[in-house]
């Protein structure tokens, strides 16, 4: 193999890099619209990290890692290397120079190779830090009070092997192999400093983060995330998603990521009548309209009453999850369906990998989930068995800025 050989993926990347540079003056691609360029490349640098307001891609590979080193210099060096690799992969290139086919055939390839020939596929890589990151590195004074382990909610059956983590990487793409390749190579580069705590594959986004996307359906067959915040609502994002002056310097312009693995008891749900399902959700199954309306985006009339009581039941999901029921709090949801085989007892291990970005998990997510866990009729069909929260720093400026630089400075 000639050292001048270029794979299709590297050719895509070289073209994508030029497109990204050309668009840098227009708010770094995803910063305003979140839309990938025509070649499927989402700008890696900008005011906010990609993978938050970016139009939700179809596939997810999420990984939570633990630090195995308390050496701050070693961790900072890893985050620098991760940033360089992430920027290359999101532009459609291989992980590092030399790639999957090194000139020295006896050397381990710098890239594992399973994405050779594939385009960037709108790949985004989003980085966050968990509560334990600060304690292990002796910087507990830099941890904001909002970054605390989520409390146990009524009905939780949390598996420690699916919860927590010192760091997280969210890889989203329109090709599952591109997302898996990205996580695999970053995990590989972290040997000796980090190790995988848990990971989750997802398919079929369960929310829309742009007005240009249709509302998808979850595994219960209902449209999910109709009232989700959108990239085209900057004022609402500033109010509910982006950390402001109340946060530490290293986090301003960033967000908090809440992850919950929610198993759905789909076999039980599938034996329920349509009317019961719609009463539990508070929407009709076909159009996705609230029970007080006829179209999906009709405002739900939570005050409407009928002969049997409220038209939208008091224990319905959309009532209890609404901004009106939660002091006006909203969030940017970015979840995915999952099917992870069976549980060994004849039931699918399937459900929703819930991901949400919020400005303050303690005032936005926690009160809402307490209310849902206590009163939501849908809870009978759900089992929360994984949970984590991470602080997601703002985006990177041009030059040598890298993940964790401001935090570890």
From TrEMBL:
Q: Which gene encodes it?
A: efeB
Q: What does this protein do?
A: Involved in the recovery of exogenous heme iron. Extracts iron from heme while preserving the protoporphyrin ring intact.
Keyword terms, alphabetized: Heme, Iron, Lyase, Metal-binding, Oxidoreductase, Peroxidase, Signal
The organism's superkingdom is given as Bacteria
Lyase as a keyword of this entry, yes or no, is yes
UniProt EC number: 1.11.1.-
In the UniProt record, the signal sequence range is: 1-22
Cofactor requirement? heme b
Every Dyp-type peroxidase N-terminal domain range: 49-203
- Which residues belong to any copy of the Dyp-type peroxidase C-terminal domain? 215-395
Q: Which family does it belong to?
A: Belongs to the DyP-type peroxidase family.
- Localization per Swiss-Prot or TrEMBL: Cell envelope
What is this protein's name? Answer: Deferrochelatase
EC top class named in words: oxidoreductase
Q: Which InterPro entries does the entry link to? A: Dimeric_a/b-barrel, Dyp_perox_C, Dyp_perox_N, Dyp_peroxidase, EfeB/EfeN, TAT_signal
What remark does the entry make about the cofactor? Binds 1 heme b (iron(II)-protoporphyrin IX) group non-covalently per subunit.
Q: What is its main location?
A: other
> Lyase: present as a keyword of the record?
yes
């Amino acid at each position: 193999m000639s050292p001048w050989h270029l794979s299709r993926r590297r050719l895509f990347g070289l073209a994508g890099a030029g497109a990204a540079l050309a668009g840098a003056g227009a708010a770094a691609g995803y910063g305003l619209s979140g839309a990938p360029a025509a070649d499927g490349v989402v700008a890696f640098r900008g005011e906010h990290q990609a993978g938050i307001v970016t139009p939700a891609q179809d596939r997810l590979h999420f990984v939570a890692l633990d630090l195995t080193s308390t050496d701050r210099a070693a961790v900072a060096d890893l985050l620098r290397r991760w940033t360089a690799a992430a920027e290359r992969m999101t532009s459609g290139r291989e992980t590092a120079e030399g790639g999957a086919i090194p000139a020295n055939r006896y050397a381990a390839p710098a890239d594992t190779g399973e994405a050779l020939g594939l385009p960037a596929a709108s790949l985004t890589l989003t980085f966050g830090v968990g509560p334990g990151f600060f304690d292990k590195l002796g910087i507990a004074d830099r941890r904001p009070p909002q970054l605390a382990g989520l409390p146990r909610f009524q009905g939780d059956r949390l598996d420690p092997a699916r919860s927590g983590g010192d760091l997280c990487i969210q890889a989203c793409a329109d090709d599952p192999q591109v997302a898996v390749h990205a996580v695999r190579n970053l995990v590989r580069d972290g040997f000796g400093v980090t190790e995988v705590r848990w990971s989750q594959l997802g398919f079929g986004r369960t929310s829309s983060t742009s007005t240009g996307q249709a509302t998808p359906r979850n595994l219960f067959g209902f449209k999910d995330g109709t009232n989700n915040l959108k990239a085209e609502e900057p004022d609402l994002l500033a109010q509910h998603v982006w950390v402001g002056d109340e946060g530490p310097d290293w986090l301003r312009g960033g967000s908090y990521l809440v992850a919950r693995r929610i198993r759905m008891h789909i076999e039980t749900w599938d034996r329920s009548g349509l009317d019961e399902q719609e009463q539990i959700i508070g929407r009709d199954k076909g159009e996705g309209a609230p029970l007080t309306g006829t179209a999906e985006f009709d405002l739900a009339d939570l005050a409407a009453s009928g002969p049997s009581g409220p038209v939208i039941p008091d224990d319905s999901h959309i009532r209890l999850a609404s901004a009106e029921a939660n002091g006006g709090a909203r969030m940017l949801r970015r979840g995915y369906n999952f099917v992870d085989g069976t549980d060994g007892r004849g039931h699918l291990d399937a459900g929703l990998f819930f991901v949400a970005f919020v400005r303050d998990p303690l005032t936005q997510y926690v009160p809402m989930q307490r209310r849902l866990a206590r009163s939501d009729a849908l809870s009978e069909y759900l089992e929360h068995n994984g949970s984590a929260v991470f602080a997601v720093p703002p985006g990177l400026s041009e030059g040598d800025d890298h993940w964790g630089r401001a935090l570890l400075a």
